[in-house]
Design brief:
UDP-n-acetylglucosamine1-carboxyvinyl-transferase, Chain; 4-stranded mixed β-sheet; 2 domains; alpha/beta
Length: 424
């Protein structure tokens, strides 16, 4: 259990946050498919990225790391999967599970992808159906991991994929498509959640030398024979991680700047500052930084978080300090993530004395006086980090299972303590 002491004075500081998990895992996969050695700088070292590194090694790739320098070196094999048989344990990493399932389809052999008990509850069947359309034999008994892939290469052709549960299915198909035996068309069925992550995927692919032809975010065409080129690639600071510190400024009336992150970030979560501005904060969008200053009061807002659903918990955790209701919508898919995030967030808000209405696709939070409580993290890093921010202003809050933050931000609580230091 980790007790969170309220800040005695508002923070006035800069905070450096680790590299983006989403960008690190995309760059690792694309770098492994490129020909030659790619050098990833400012990379994230966390549970999710370390399992990706270990899985690539189990597939026969050489990946060298220097955590002290935040450096990863990936020796790509030009689309070849060296191992013909591998058992891959992805822990709780959704990106690794979905991306590697598509990647091993390029191989020639039998591969198993498995994870934690929660990962065994997370859907992957839509991706397997799409892979089947382009020649990959992949099966999961319950539509969730473990997944068994009997690979003979990726034929290509036309694949239809749903995007209403996770954008990772679409991203996984796109990243491996250049190595299909034929041109590949990927068509999105229905609604797409978290579309900025698909834009991120396309940007990483292009940075490594493959440009995807597309019609908006509905139809994508990838020519066979395109190849990734090894390169040096700098990982942006993680916008999802930065949001907790921006939220801390909002609730305490302080000022927090995050260097290296800008309004032009590849990450959709960088737009969380727009919501804080709507709530009454001052935002500075600088050349190479974002900065948020709290103004002593917050307004309740209505927000569609379908494109940055990881911030559902962050917004919910600061909603008790607003002067009116906060309404969150567009996030039905978060029930299938590290926890049932909708139900878990509502449960913890009620534990803190808040009035919450849980809807099919979101939450309505009616602010009430906060009461002391031990917040249960539900083994979900984002719940632990979000409600730690609540404790920076409200006394008597502690976080159970604080170690779960290692999934994406191992030293989160130490960085949070840095807010107690003077101006920087």
């Amino acid at each position: 259990m980790r007790e969170i002491a309220p800040l005695l004075t508002p923070p006035d500081t800069s905070v450096s946050v680790p590299g983006s998990k989403s960008l690190t895992n995309r760059a690792l996969l694309v770098g492994a498919l490129a020909l030659g050695t790619s050098r990833l700088t400012s990379a994230l070292f966390s549970d999710d990225t370390c399992v990706m590194v270990e899985c690539l090694r189990r597939l026969g790739f050489t990946v060298r790391v220097d955590q002290s320098e935040l450096l990863m070196l990936v020796e790509g094999r030009g689309g070849e999967i060296p191992a013909q048989r591998a058992e891959l344990f992805v822990g709780g990493a959704g990106t690794a599970a979905r991306f590697l399932t598509a990647m091993v389809g390029l191989g020639n052999g039998r591969y198993t992808i498995d994870g934690t008990e929660r990962m065994r509850e997370r859907p992957i069947q839509h991706l397997l159906d799409a892979l089947g359309m382009v020649g990959v034999e992949a099966a999961a008994e319950r539509g969730t991991p473990p997944v068994v892939v009997n690979a003979r290469g990726l034929r290509g052709g036309r694949a239809m994929v749903r995007g209403d549960v996770s954008s990772q299915f679409l991203s996984a198909l796109l990243m491996v498509a250049p190595y299909a035996q034929e041109d590949m068309e990927v068509v999105l069925e229905g609604r797409l959640v978290e579309s900025p992550y698909v834009e991120m995927t396309l940007a990483v692919m292009e940075a490594f030398g493959v440009r995807v032809e597309r019609e908006g975010l509905r139809r994508f065409f990838v020519r066979s024979g395109g190849r990734y080129r090894a390169r040096d690639y700098a990982i942006e600071p993680d916008a999802s991680a930065a949001a907790y510190f921006f939220a801390a400024a909002a609730v305490t009336g302080g000022r927090v700047r995050v260097p290296g992150l800008s309004a032009s970030s590849l990450q959709g979560d960088a737009r969380f500052v727009d919501l804080l501005e709507e709530m009454g904060c001052r935002v500075v969008r600088g050349d190479g930084f974002l900065e948020v200053s709290g103004t002593g009061g917050l307004r309740g807002i209505e927000a569609d978080l379908s494109e940055m659903s990881d911030q559902t918990m962050t917004l919910a955790a600061i909603a008790p300090f607003a002067n009116g209701p906060t309404r969150i919508r567009g996030v039905a898919h978060i029930r299938h993530q590290e926890s049932d995030r909708m139900a878990a967030t509502a449960t913890e808000l009620r534990r803190l004395g808040q009035e919450v209405e849980e809807r099919d696709d979101g939450l309505v939070i009616l602010p009430r006086p906060l009461r002391p409580a031990v917040v249960q993290a539900h083994d979900d890093h984002r719940i632990a980090m979000a409600f730690a921010v609540t404790g920076l202003r409200a006394p008597g809050i502690a976080i159970a299972e604080p170690g779960c933050v290692a999934k994406t931000f191992p030293d989160f609580f130490e960085r949070l303590e840095d807010l107690r230091s003077g101006p920087s």
